[in-house]
Amino acid sequence: MRFRLPALVLMALLVASCSEPGPVAGSSPTSWPQPSPAASASPERLGPGGLTLDEEIGAVIMVGFTGSLSDAVLADWTRHQFGGLLVVNMNHNAGTAASMTALIAKLRGAVRHRLIAATDQEGGQVCLAVSSVPCLAMPVGRTGTARMAAALRALGFDLDLGPVSDVCNGPSSIMWGRCYGTSPASVAAAVGAVVDGIHDAGMLSAAKHFPGHGDTSVSSETQLPRIDESLATLKSRDWPPFRAAASHGVDFVMLGHLFYPVLDATHSADLSPVTIQRLRSDVGFKGAIISDDMEMGAITASTPAPEAAVEFLVNGGDMVMIAHHLSVADATYNAIKAALRSGRLPRSRLDEAVAALQALPNR
After folding, report:
1. Could you check whether the bond before residue 211 is cis, i.e. omega within 30 degrees of 0?
2. pTM, rounded to two decimals
3. Phi-psi bin for 67: left (phi > 0), alpha (psi -120 to 50), beta?
4. Kindly report the CA angle at 52 between 47 and 53, in degrees rounded to 5?
5. Helices 326-342, 305-314: inter-axial angle, 10-degree rounding
6. Disulfide engineering: 276 pairs with which of 37, 268, 270, 316, CB 3.0-4.6 Å?
7. Cβ–Cβ under 8 Å, residues 166 and 179
């Protein structure tokens, strides 16, 4: 046994010399490449502005909710990263200037990307119920519009959902009292002035309700209006105000819940790619396209709001609006995510929508 020990030791040394090399001069064991559990996982592809997929989904949804801002609402907002806030009087979110400013600031602080805070401030019968915001009589021109919009901006808002760009067919129109008249030329002139006034105050603007909501007495709050007009009439009567808005640099166009068989014999205008094609080609609008509230009866009578939201995005829309219920907004988020996973909504289309929103100026 005394003579075998050196041989065994020698063999062990030879085996060791053939094993993994030690560290090279000047290195330490801790500097060697270390295996990582995530080393084989592909990094997530980021969208426009470096947004993750989940952040992109939230960014294209404008949300309203009922009641004051609670911890639960703030937590939901933080989780879903909604890119738009809608404040309307019937939701009773805040009654004073101070509480409205605080609400907007808290939600903006919960989002890792741009939050667009919006409300309807048209003058006349449609105004935000906060005393610091003047509500001027219709028709409101450039100077009056700028006064109202500046008061909104002081509260923290970014977007005044106006001007109404519909041409009314007379006092029987559901838009009577909100539209600027019955003449395409006079409405177009008024619309251009309102867009300028909103911009003067440093706010974003949104012309509504394309393809035109003035030739019906039916409210899309409850049912889908059907408007049987020719394409020639739409081009000559209903679209000049939207062309004026586009020429004045309007930031958004809102699509109305309207059924125009001449545009699409199967789908409502806001859920048809034809409408968006016409808005781009015939009107010349290049900005962002927003839906009206997907919780309106015109939509929900036949299509659940989350499904309608997916259709709107697939067809070329950029931001969907859920005006009243956070649970519906959450379901819409989930529906968009499912449509992306299935391939029904291409990631490239979502990227386009997010890019359109990010391209909006910080006025």
Report:
1. yes
2. 0.87
3. left
4. 85
5. 50
6. 316
7. yes
Which residues does residue 62 pair with via DSSP β-bridges, in sequence order? 84, 321
| Single-letter amino acid code for the residue at 307 | E
102 three-class SS: helix
The CA distance from 34 to 39, in Å, is 10
Q: Which of 202, 181, 219, 191 lies closest to 122 in space, CA to CA?
A: 191
- State how far the Cα of 19 lies from the Cα of 56, in Å rounded to an integer: 51
Per residue, what are the HEC states of 44-87? CCCCHHHCCHHHHHHHCEEECCCCCCCHHHHHHHHHHCCCEEEE
Rounded to the nearest 10 degrees, how much is the dihedral formed by the CA atoms of 314, 317, 319, 324?
A: -80
The angle formed by the CA atoms of residues 268, 204 and 272, to the nearest 5 degrees, is 15
Strands in the chain per DSSP E: 61-63, 84-87, 116-119, 159-160, 204-210, 252-255, 288-293, 319-322
Structure tokens at 79: 């989780």
Residue 301 CA to residue 56 CA, distance in Å, equals 28
Q: pLDDT tens across 180-207, in order?
A: 999 999 999 999 999 999 999 999 999 9
What confidence tier does 21 reach under pLDDT thresholds 50, 70, 90?
A: very low
Name the token pair of 209: 């309700």
The two three-digit tokens of residue 319, written as one number: 């931001």
Question: Which candidate, 155, 150, 170, 45, places its Cα nearest to that of 94?
Answer: 155
Q: What is the three-class DSSP state of 168?
A: coil
How far from 63 is each of 77, 110, 248, CA to CA, in Å? 9, 14, 27
Count each helix (H run) and each strand (E run) in the chain, helices first. 13, 8
Domain 51-358 homologous superfamily, CATH: Glycoside hydrolase, family 3, N-terminal domain (3.20.20.300)
pLDDT confidence band for 362 (50 / 70 / 90): confident
Distance CA 251, CA 206 (A): 6
d(CA 334, CA 176): 38
pLDDT tens digits along 265-309: 999 999 999 999 999 999 999 999 999 999 999 999 999 999 999
